[in-house]
């Protein structure tokens, strides 16, 4: 049996802390409402890290981010893991982001150990999971799962009357 592949806890911690600096509040929490400037900065940082880890990155029509590492079987369905980077107005450092960053660290650890999986591996970062800015919560993942239409997602409005589509495109 091959030796176990371990994540690099220090690297994961440093990654979490670097992400927590994006939208940091004076109380030590994080505020990254979906599609805000802070959320965009966090998403740009994630894309950079995914590319640095060797992932092919794509962003869909809802702003969901996918970082993919090919497996040895190009026909195999991927193993997908992740979460979101947007927060509630008074979010914590780990909520949502830890799921995305732990998935990224898994990709990094496997690369460090030169492990190639049969199935492709994908890190996903969903847009507007919290629903703190655009209702309903799980808006973009809801479209991907067939629970909402793209039109419903695009028409969602924040309290200032801005639509999800307009904020996505800005």
Automatic annotation (TrEMBL):
Residues 64-131 form the Peptidase M28 domain. SUPFAM superfamilies: Zn-dependent exopeptidases (SSF53187). InterPro entries: Amidase_Cbmase, Peptidase_M28. Keywords: Hydrolase. It comes from the Bacteria. GO terms for molecular function: hydrolase activity, acting on carbon-nitrogen (but not peptide) bonds, in linear amidines. It holds the Pfam family Peptidase_M28. This is M20/M25/M40 family metallo-hydrolase. It comes from Candidatus Segetimicrobium genomatis. The lineage of its organism: Bacteria, Bacillati, Candidatus Sysuimicrobiota, Candidatus Sysuimicrobiia, Candidatus Sysuimicrobiales.
């Amino acid at each position: 049996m091959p030796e176990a592949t371990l994540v690099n806890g220090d690297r994961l911690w440093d990654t979490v802390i670097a992400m927590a600096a994006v939208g940091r509040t004076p109380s030590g929490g994080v505020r990254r409402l979906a599609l805000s400037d802070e959320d965009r900065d966090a998403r740009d940082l994630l894309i950079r890290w995914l590319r640095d880890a060797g992932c092919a990155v794509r962003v869909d029509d809802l702003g969901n981010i996918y970082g993919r590492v090919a497996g040895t079987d190009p026909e195999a369905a991927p193993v997908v893991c992740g979460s979101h980077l947007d927060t509630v107005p008074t979010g914590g450092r780990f909520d949502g982001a830890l799921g995305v960053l732990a998935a990224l660290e898994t990709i990094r650890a496997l690369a460090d150990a030169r492990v190639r999986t049969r199935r492709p591996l994908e890190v996903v970062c969903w847009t507007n999971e919290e629903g703190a800015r655009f209702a309903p919560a799980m808006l973009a993942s809801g479209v991907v799962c067939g629970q909402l239409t793209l039109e419903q997602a695009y028409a969602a409005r924040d309290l200032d009357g801005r639509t999800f589509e307009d904020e996505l495109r800005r």
